Amino acid sequence: MNKPLKHPTALSRRQVMIGAAGLSFAFALPGRAGASALAAARSGKALSPWVSIASDGTIMIMSAATEMGQGSMTSLPLVLAEELDADWSKVKIVTAPAVEAIYGNPGFQGMMYTAGSNAVTSYYGPLRIFGAQVRRVLLDNAAKTLGVPVDELTTEPSLVVHSKSGRRLSYGEIAATAEVPAKAPEIKPDQLKKAKDFRLITKDVMRVELPGKVNGTARYSIDLHVPNMLYGTVLRAPVEGSVPDKIDEAKAKAIAGVVRIVRLPYGVGTLAETPWAAFEARRALTQSVTWTRTGTAWGFDSDKGIERFAADAKNPARMSTEWSRIGDPRAQMPKAASTLEAEYRCDYAYHAQMEPLNAIASVSPAGDAVEIWAGTQSQTTATEAPAKILGISKDKVKLHDMLMGGGFGRRGNRDVDFIIDAVLMSKEAGRPVKVMWTREDDFANGRFRPISAHALKAGFDPSGKLSTWQHRIAVDRVGAYMDPVRYQAAGGKDFIAMLGADLKGYDVPHQLVEQLYRDTGVRTNPLRGISFIANRFATESFVDEIARKRGIDPVAYHLDLLKGTPRAIKVVERVVQMAEWGKKREGRALGFAYLDYSGSQVAGIAEISLNRTNGEIKVHNFWCTIDCGVAVQPDNVVAQQESSIVYGLGVALTEVITIKNGAVEQSNFYDYHVPRMKDVPAMHIEVIQTDNHPTGAGQMATPLVAPAIAGAVAELTGVRLRHTPFTPDRVKKALG
Amino acid sequence: MATSFTVNGKAATTDAPPATPLLWVIREGLKLTGTKFGCGTGLCGACMVHIDGKRAYSCQTQVSEIAGKSVTTIEGLSPDSSHPLQKAWLAEHVPQCGYCQSGQIMSAADLLKQKPKPTRDEIVEHMNTNICRCGTYQRIVRAVERAARES
Predict the structure, then answer these.
(1) Closest chain B residue by Cα to residue A229
(2) Nearest chain A alpha carbon to B86
(3) For residue B151, what pLDDT band results from cuts at 50, 70 and 90?
(4) What's the DSSP call for residue A186?
(5) Confidence class for position A23, pLDDT limits 50, 70, 90
C-alpha cells in the first residue's frame, strides 16, 4: 500500500527529471488519496496523476500545457490517449494543477510553461509512457478478473479483449475494481505503438475547446464573475521603474461607482462597482498623476537608438561577446579572397493578443491565501510571483488557468505583471477584484520584441565558395528582463534575443556570431517567432544577397549550402515545386527563405507585387512546407503555419512600436497596423510527415516571411530592403 | 434612469449611465460574455453584435441609443450552435485562440443576411472590420463560403 504524499510541491525538480525513478514516483503518488487532492475536478479511479477512469468509462486526462489557440490542450492528452488505447469520445480533459514535480515541462527544466512551441516535443515521450503504463495496469487487472494470462489480452478503444474466449471488459468496468500497483509497470520503447497502428496521432480530431469558441461559451478569465467582485484598472508609469509621485484623486473619485483610488508600488489603481466606472476613473487619472523620473528608459528614443545599435554592430572596436563559433573564423576572415558586408535592422513589435491582459484575484481576509483566475503561459510563474509578493507559500495560491485570448509570448514573464495587479488590488480592497487593462494600457505597458541591428560579413575562398561568416548583433536584452531566473539558469545567455542567429544546416566551415548586449530600459518579452524573426531576416536576406551578387539563383545557392541536410533539401525542393519557382510572372516576383527552427524544417516562398508610387508591397501568395517530424495533428500544423505566416506578415510589413523619451508612442489599432483580411495572401501549406521525434509547429513560419518578401522585392526591383517593417515610406526611400 | 431593450428576444433593462457602452452592459450586467472587449474604439470587431438586425460595434454604442431596440449576441444567434456559420466554423476548424470569433461570426451573419451568396471579394470587404490576431482569415473565408453553400 502506497502512502499518499502530503506535499507534492516539495519534490525537487530533479526527482521528476531523472526518468524512470521520477515516473514511477509520479505514478505511485496518487496511491489512494493523493490524486483527488491534486485535481478536485476529477472523478473515478485515479490510475496515475495523469489519468483517472470512472466506472461509466469516462476517462479524465490531465492537460499540463496552457491553451492559447495552439491546440496543446488537445494534442497532449491525445498522445497519452493513443498509448492508453482510449476511446477518444469518452475522454474529458482537465487542466492540471500547478504541481511542477508531476506536470512540469521537461523542455523548461520542469517549470510549467507553454512556450517556444515545445509542448508536444517535450511531453511526447513521457506521455506515451504514462499512457502505456495505465493500459498495462488495466490489462493486469483484467487478467486477474478473467483468470487468464495477461499476454492473451489485447485492447481495442477503451476495451480489454480476450479473443480466445470472446470475453471483453470495458475500461470503466475494470477501473471500478482496479488495484493500482505501488510502482508503475516498466514500459520499454519497443512496447509502444508502432506509427502504423496509430488511431489518434497523425489523424485529425476536433480540438476539444473549439465548440465553445463558436457559441460564446468558451471562458477566458476576462469573462468570469466572482461573487462580491469589484472591477479595477491600473494606470502605470510611462517608463518602467518610475513610481507615482503626486496623485490628485478628486476627479476620479467623483465618478459614480468609483470605490477607491489605490497607490501601488508601480502605478495607480482604480476600484469601482462597474468596469466602465473603473475605466472612466483611469481616464480621469491620466492628467492627475505625476511620476518620479526613476527608471532607465527616460530620454531614450528608438529612432536614435537603432542608429547607435547599427553603428556599434558595424564597429569592430565595440565590445561584443561570442555567442557561437564554428571553425576558426577570426583567423580565416582576414585570409578571404573576397568579402561582402551588409547591415539589417529590426524595430520593436507588439504582441497584440486580442484579449487585453486581465486577471481576477481573491486574497483571503487574513492575507494568507489567494485564488487566481487568469490566462497564463506559465502556471509556475502565475503562482510563484503572487506567493512571493504576498509572502505566502506557493501551495496557498490556487490558480485557475483559463483559456487565453492569444498569448504569443506576452503571458510568460516571470513577474506576471497583469496577475500581480489583481493580487495587489484584491488585497487592498479586501474583496475579489477583476483587473482589466484597456487596449491603450496593453500598448503602453507592452513588452516588445526587441530592436536589433545586424552587421554581417561573408568571406569567400579563391574559388568563390562561402567559407567564413561573421554576424554581429546589437540587440536590446530580453531574457535578463523578462525572466531573470531562467536567464541566470542559462548562465547569462540571452537565448530569447539570440536564438536563430546560427546558420544551422548550412555548409559554411567558419562561423562567428557575436552579441553586443544592450539595455535601453524598454520592456521586452519573447514574441511569436522570438529572435528567429530578426536573426533569420538578417541571415536569410544576406544569403539571398550573396547569391544574387554572384549571379546564382537563390534557391540553387541554398540547396548547395544545405547539401549535408537531407530533411532541409526535401522541404526546399517541395516548396519550390509548389510555387513553380523559376516561372516568370507579370509584375510579380518570388522570394525564398529556409529555416531550421528547433529541429523543424520549414521553407517558404512569397509572391509579391509592388506599387512604386506609394511604396506598398502586396503579398499575393505564400507557399510553405514544414517537416516537424511526427505531426500529431496535421491540420492543426497547417493552421499554425497559416497563423504564423499572417503574424510574420505584420512584423514584416506594417507593425512598428516607437519609443519617445522612454514611452511607447502607439496606443491602439489605428496607429499600429496588424494584418486584416485584405492584407492576407493565399496560403498554401504542406506538411511533410516523417517519423522523426515531433518538433515545434506553433510559430515556425513566422521568421520566413520578412526575408522571403525582401528576396522577392530584390528580384523585382534589384533593391534590397534592410529594415523591418518594410513600411511604404521605407520602401519608397529604398527605391529612391 | 433605466433603459429598456431586448436581448436575444428577452426583455432587459439597465440603469447604467447613458454614456456606458452597450458592451459592458451585455458582458458584466447581463453576463453574456461571448461578446468580447478588444480595443474599446471600434477598430477590431471583437464586440460585434446585431442591433435591430444589423451589425454594430457594441463598444461604440451607448446605452442611451438602445432604448426599445433589439440586440442579438452570439448567444442568441442560435440556441444550439446550429446556425450555418457556426457549423461551418467548426467544419473548417476556424478558431485558434477563439477570442475574436464571436465578433467574426456576428459580422459574417450580417453579411449573409444582406447577401446570401457573397463573392469572395465581398466577403473580404465586409470582414475587413474584424481583426483576428491568430490570422485565421483564410479559414474564415472558407467557412463563410461553406455556410453560404450549405444554407
Answers:
(1) B28
(2) A214
(3) confident
(4) P
(5) very low
Helices B137-150 and A634-653: crossing angle in degrees, nearest 10, is: 120
Distance CA A505, CA A610 (A): 32
CB contact under 8 A, A212 and B90: no
B132–A215 C-beta distance less than 8 A: no
pLDDT tens per residue across span A199-238: 999 999 999 999 999 999 999 999 999 999 999 999 999 9
- Candidates A413, A446, A520; CA nearest to A477 is A520
Residue in chain A nearest B78 by alpha carbon: A215
Residue A353 with chain B: CB contacts under 8 Å: 97, 99, 133
For the CA atoms of A25, A26, A32, A35, the dihedral, rounded to the nearest 10 degrees, stands at 160
- Domain extents for chain B? 3-77, 84-150
Instruction: Please tell me the distance in Å from B16's CA to the nearest CA on chain A.
Output: 9
Calpha distance A677→A116 (Å, rounded)? 27
Can you say whether the dihedral through the CA atoms of A200, A202, A204, A208 is positive or negative? positive
Contact B127 A405 (CB under 8 A): no
A234-269 burial, b at 16+ Cβ within 10 Å, e below that, comes to bbbbbbbbbebeebebeebeebebbbbbbebebbbb
What is the per-residue pLDDT across B119-138, written as a single tens digit (0 to 9) for each? 999 999 999 999 999 999 99
Mean pLDDT (whole number) for A641-651 = 98
Segment B77-122, tens digit of pLDDT: 999 999 999 999 999 999 999 999 999 999 999 999 999 999 999 9
CATH of domain A8-211: 3.30.365.10
| pLDDT, average across residues A82-94 | 97
Q: What is the dotted CATH code of the domain comprising A302-349+448-735?
A: 3.30.365.10
* Beta pairing, strands A230-236 & A244-247: unpaired
Residue A422 has phi, psi (to 5 degrees) of -70, -35
Is B46 an interface residue toward A (CB < 8 Å)?
A: yes
Inter-helix orientation angle A530-549/A634-653, to 10°: 70
SS (H, E, C) A401-442: ECECCCCCCCCCCCCCHHHHHHHHHHHHHCCCEEEECCHHHH
CATH hierarchy code of domain B3-77: 3.10.20.30
Domains B3-77 and B84-150 share a fold: no
Q: Decide if A8-211 and A221-294+357-436 have a common fold.
A: yes
CATH number for A221-294+357-436 (one of 3.30.365.10, 3.10.20.30, 3.90.1150.10, 3.10.100.10): it is: 3.30.365.10
The correct CATH number of B84-150 out of 3.90.1150.10, 1.10.10.410, 1.10.150.120, 1.10.599.10 is: 1.10.150.120
pLDDT for res A37: 37
The answer to whether the Cβ–Cβ distance between B90 and A206 falls below 8 Å is: yes
Residue B54 burial class via C-beta count within 10 angstroms: exposed 0-12, middle 13-18, buried 19 and up:
exposed
Per-residue burial over B19-44, b = 16 or more CB atoms within 10 Å of its CB, e = otherwise: ebbbbbbbbbbbebbbbbbbbbbbbb
What residue ranges do the domains of chain A occupy?
8-211, 221-294+357-436, 302-349+448-735
Residues 6+ apart with CB under 8 A from A499: A530, A531, A532, A535
Which three three-digit cell numbers place residue B42? 471600434
β-bridge pairing A267-272 and A258-263: antiparallel
Q: Which residues of chain B does A439 touch, with a Cβ-Cβ cutoff of 8 Å?
A: 38-41
SS3 content of chain A, % helix, strand, coil (to 5): 35, 25, 40
Residue A44's pLDDT is what? 72
The number of helix segments (H) and strand segments (E) in chain A equals 23, 28
* Sequence letter at residue A262: V
- Collapse the DSSP code of A453 into the 3-class scheme (helix H, G, I; strand E, B; otherwise coil) and give the result: strand
Q: Given a cut of 90, is residue A113 above it in pLDDT?
A: yes
